[in-house]
Amino acid sequence: MWKAAIAISLSLAGVATMTAAGNAGDVSRGRELAERRCASCHAIGEADKSPDPLAPPFRNLYRQYPVDALQPAFLKGLEVGHRNMPLFVLSPQEVTDIIAFLHDLNPCGKPSSDDEAMARCFAPVK
Predict the structure, then answer these.
(1) Separation CA 83–CA 120 (nearest Å)
(2) Average pLDDT over every residue of 26-37
(3) How many CB atoms neighbour CB 52 within 10 A?
(4) What is the pTM of this model?
């Protein structure tokens, strides 16, 4: 139920704030930020398991939410998901970087001849 409410509110927020975040995102900075701030609970790689079973792997977020629509929540301080998730606030550039990293995890967002990547693209969320 909370997922639907979050998805609706994030979708309504849209991507209008995307331009407010400034420069283009840097995938490597986004990955470093995820390693530092998120990996203690969330899986941030292509195949690892989340240390907290209630924390969704980052590689699946694009299946649950429009990734760009997460930007307003990141900008105002994310406090959603699982009950142990801490409140945190990111700078606009950090938000842009983490969104770039989340897009990079999405095998559906880029052309590929990699059969495994395409299988992940269309596989059900676990």
Answers:
(1) 28
(2) 95
(3) 15
(4) 0.69
